[in-house]
Write a structure and sequence with these properties.
Helices cover 0% and strands 18% of the residues. By secondary structure, it is mostly beta strands. It starts with a strand and ends in a 32-residue tail after the last strand.
Length: 80
């Protein structure tokens, strides 16, 4: 899974669109609504972030056997 983080300026966020042509909204975790300088976003996401350290930008991935996933469903983006 590849996560490519891009940087931008707050005034430009209204014109940005993700790869699905959706708008970006402020992240609730890092309080991006009050951001005043740089913002961070991904092409496939729908949130912008005030900090590169925001947990909304982090991904923790580990391989497990299919028999160990329990009630978890497939990924909504790739179906795997």
């Amino acid at each position: 899974m590849k996560l490519s983080i891009q940087a931008g300026n707050v005034p430009d966020v209204a014109d940005l669109r993700n790869e699905y042509q959706g708008k970006y909204y402020p992240c609730e975790k890092c309080k991006a609504k009050s951001a005043s300088g740089m913002i961070y976003y991904t092409a496939s996401g729908d949130r912008y972030h005030a900090s590169l350290g925001c947990s909304g930008l982090k991904r923790n991935i580990r391989a497990v056997k299919l028999s160990e996933v329990g009630g978890r469903g497939a990924c909504s983006r790739c179906g795997r």
